[in-house]
């Protein structure tokens, strides 16, 4: 079964075409990115993945004024006589769409129909930057591939198993019932993929696995997983809460904003920009890319050193609190750009936790990892893994399962 995975953003469409033999067996036939849609410098980058592991790359610089044009060019590239991988789009059985927010309406991947589209539209206020672009991808795919099934896979779905004590805020209950104010969490597709892989690597049946997955990148989140089900996650109603991120505060005292408004006259829009785009690592030391922060720290920059210490300390607090919530912990998994590539962050985030049975082996932890790697010491009661995430494959897998 050929499944086209689409991640439609506000100005880009990321895609991968899979040949799925089963839910656990798939290979990439082609991948690429249409970017800067609506701009004069828009491009389409395309790769055909050869059976021998090699890649044939092509690119087009034709204007992409809208998502309709972008997806049409992607489909033409897939069927291109020279670089394509299908004779026609009729070979594509389904498109799996990443949708950021499904609210409480969706706890599993769902075949798209008009009612599903309407429900995704209803959740636009919860994800105003993402859901409209996701809907554009669905709309255009339905038009251009009328014979293919369309499946929506929601970033928030994995976290819908959280109990009320984890997802509710201590605010008037009417705000939850009338406005949907609650924790939803994000990065759910990544957390689900990594959790399944980690359970397998740790030798624990998934429905019995107690895990903490740490998706650490410019945006970051953790999830506490008990018996294969998410019971808590660090991101909240929005992607602002929890861990310190590249430009986002993570958890902080919200009354600071009232104080700033009274003292400086800062507006709502200015405060929004402050906590989402000017804070986090960038706010502390002027850099949001951890590679730059490390360089500055090594050069003696005290604020860069502070930013690193704050990041690791916040991570450690979440690891500890989720261990307490789980009661028993089989394994921890690091993933995403920072989790897979920054050995300092991994080591510092779990330092001095020997008394909890968590011991990272310095040698095993060294370097960057593109394959699952055990980094805990033999003496560690809790296994610690680096597990590279693959959200596109998880979307393809879930799409296959829905259609099967």
From TrEMBL:
Keyword Kinase applies: yes
InterPro entries, per the entry: Ac/propionate_kinase, Aliphatic_acid_kin_short-chain, Aliphatic_acid_kinase_CS, ATPase_NBD
Alphabetized CDD domains for the sequence: ASKHA_NBD_AcK_PK
Biological pathway: Metabolic intermediate biosynthesis; acetyl-CoA biosynthesis; acetyl-CoA from acetate: step 1/2
Subcellular location: Cytoplasm
Reactions mediated catalytically: acetate + ATP = acetyl phosphate + ADP
Record's function text: Catalyzes the formation of acetyl phosphate from acetate and ATP. Can also catalyze the reverse reaction.
Name this protein carries in UniProt: Acetate kinase
Species this protein is from: Oceanidesulfovibrio indonesiensis
Organism lineage string: Bacteria, Pseudomonadati, Thermodesulfobacteriota, Desulfovibrionia, Desulfovibrionales
């Amino acid at each position: 079964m050929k499944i086209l995975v689409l991640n439609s953003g506000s100005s880009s469409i990321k895609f991968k075409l899979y040949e799925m033999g089963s839910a656990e067996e798939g290979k990439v036939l082609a991948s690429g990115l249409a970017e800067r849609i609506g701009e004069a410098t828009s491009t389409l980058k395309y790769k055909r993945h050869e059976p021998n592991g090699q890649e044939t790359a092509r690119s087009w610089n034709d204007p992409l004024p809208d998502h309709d044009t972008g997806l049409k060019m992607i489909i033409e590239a897939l069927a291109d006589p020279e670089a394509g991988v299908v004779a026609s789009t009729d070979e594509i059985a389904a498109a799996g769409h990443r949708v950021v927010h499904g609210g409480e309406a969706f706890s599993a991947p769902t075949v798209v129909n008009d009612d599903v589209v309407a429900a995704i539209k209803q959740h636009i206020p919860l994800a105003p930057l993402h859901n409209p672009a996701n809907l554009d991808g669905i709309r255009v795919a339905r038009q251009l591939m009328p014979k293919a099934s369309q499946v929506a896979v929601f970033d928030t779905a994995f976290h819908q198993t959280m109990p009320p004590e984890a997802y509710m805020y201590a605010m008037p209950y009417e705000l939850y019932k009338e406005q949907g104010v609650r924790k939803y969490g994000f990065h759910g597709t990544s957390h689900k993929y990594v959790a399944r892989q980690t359970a397998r690597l740790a030798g624990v049946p998934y429905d019995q696995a107690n895990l903490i997955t740490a998706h650490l990148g410019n945006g970051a989140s953790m999830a506490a997983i008990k018996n294969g089900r998410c019971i808590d996650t660090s991101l909240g109603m929005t992607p602002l809460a929890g861990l310190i991120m590249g430009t986002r505060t993570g958890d902080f005292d919200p009354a600071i904003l009232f104080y700033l408004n009274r003292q400086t006259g800062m507006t709502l829009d200015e405060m929004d920009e402050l906590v989402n785009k000017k804070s986090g690592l960038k706010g502390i030391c002027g850099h949001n890319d951890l590679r730059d922060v490390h360089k500055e720290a090594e050069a003696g920059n005290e604020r860069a050193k502070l930013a690193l210490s704050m990041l690791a300390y916040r991570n450690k607090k979440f690891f500890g609190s989720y261990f307490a919530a789980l009661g028993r912990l089989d394994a921890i998994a690091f993933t995403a750009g920072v989790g897979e590539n920054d050995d300092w962050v991994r080591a510092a985030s779990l330092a001095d936790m020997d008394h909890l049975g968590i011991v990272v082996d310095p040698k095993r932890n060294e370097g960057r990892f593109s394959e699952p790697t055990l980094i805990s010491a033999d003496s560690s009661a809790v296994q610690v893994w680096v597990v590279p995430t693959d959200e596109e494959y998880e979307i393809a897998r879930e799409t296959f399962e829905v259609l099967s």
